[in-house]
Specification:
By secondary structure, this protein is an alpha+beta fold. It has one helix and seven strands. The chain is globular, with a radius of gyration of 17 Å.
Length: 110
């Protein structure tokens, strides 16, 4: 009946979750402080060495800043980025690690 199908579905969901987070630790990326006035710290923990690209997008989806790290070692990383020339508003911080992408909303308020 239906019970074996439910077990299979649960196993598939678990696999998808594990595959989706294979490159970064469970806590994902953290943006602090938020809201910020002029700079913020981005923290993430790589499970393995990989290429990391950080993109900051404005409210219209335009990329206003890109930071690339050709090869970062496994472990925790803290990157401090300046926003002093950004106008007030909401921005999206997108972190690309290999083929994996995670984003966070960031508010600039003065």
């Amino acid at each position: 009946g239906s019970q074996p199908e439910q077990e299979t579905a649960a196993e598939e969901r678990t696999t998808e979750i594990e595959d989706g987070n294979a490159l970064i630790s469970a806590d994902g990326i953290q943006v602090f402080p938020n809201p910020t006035k002029d700079k913020f710290q981005l923290t993430y923990n790589l499970k393995q060495a990989d290429v990391v690209n950080i993109r900051i997008l404005n409210q219209t989806g335009q990329v206003v800043q890109t930071v690339s790290y050709p090869q970062q070692a496994a472990g925790q990383h803290q990157e401090q980025l300046s926003l002093s020339w950004y106008s007030e508003g909401v921005y999206i911080v997108m972190v690309h690690i290999g083929d994996w992408v995670q984003s966070r909303k960031l508010v600039v308020s003065r």
